[in-house]
Amino acid sequence: MLRWKDIIYYAKYGNPEPYEKVEKTEEEWRQELTEAQYQVLRQKATEPPYRNAYCRSYEPGVYTCAGCGQMLFNATEKYHAISGWPSFTQPARRGAIRYTFDDSHHMQRMEAICNVCGGHLGHVFNDGPEPGGLRYCINSASMVRLQDSREE
């Protein structure tokens, strides 16, 4: 289980190595992603609060990166944080997400980035529920929810 001190450590001293790297040109990204996905994943945009695909969605399954398909979160870690964006308590695995300090927009935040393709996902905060205390506030456009195989 990741805790805030782990996130700070990764951002300061280096993130876990990804199991693979996906690198594409900006033109390839533009062709493969929707406009909303491109804006969020490649341009670090933020979608409007509450008006996004997964904010109020709690179906079983897994959430994968819309850019590369890497598994990011299990639906079992999703919770109602009243933030306007999908919120999760833990990533699917320790090395799924890369962390970096983000002081844009006159705020100090911790950016969450796909560790495989480098796509911007959202941010992680230290005000989540126990036991981990983390709140991953993630843009819906950066993810795709895959149905749990037990649903079929």
UniProtKB/TrEMBL annotation:
Keywords: Oxidoreductase
Pfam families: SelR
Catalytic activities: L-methionyl-[protein] + [thioredoxin]-disulfide + H2O = L-methionyl-(R)-S-oxide-[protein] + [thioredoxin]-dithiol
E.C. number(s) listed in UniProt: 1.8.4.12
BP-aspect Gene Ontology terms: protein repair; response to oxidative stress
Gene Ontology CC: one annotated term: cytoplasm
Highest taxon of source: Bacteria
PROSITE patterns reported for this sequence: MSRB
Top EC class for this record: oxidoreductase
Hydrolase recorded as keyword: no
GO molecular function: peptide-methionine (R)-S-oxide reductase activity
MsrB domain segment(s): 26-148
InterPro entries, alphabetized: Met_Sox_Rdtase_MsrB, Met_Sox_Rdtase_MsrB_dom, Mss4-like_sf
Protein name as it appears in the record: peptide-methionine (R)-S-oxide reductase
